[in-house]
Amino acid sequence: MKTNQVIKTEEYKQYTVREHQRRLFKRVYKFVCAGCDRKVERETYAVCCPSYGNKCNGKKSDCRRANN
């Protein structure tokens, strides 16, 4: 049995980025964690409000969502 496979090759040119400055805005969000239902405060660079707090973010021992 033959399968037709298409192999795509892309070439990338090397370039350098000129030195510049960026302004990063750190925000403090107060919200209810979707994993543990606790009121949490999280400092982040994200544009929107995070769903999970820092303590249960991906930890199986502290977060209910790991058991689902």
TrEMBL record:
Domain of life (superkingdom): Bacteria
The protein's name in its UniProt record: Uncharacterized protein
Organism the protein comes from: Hyella patelloides LEGE 07179
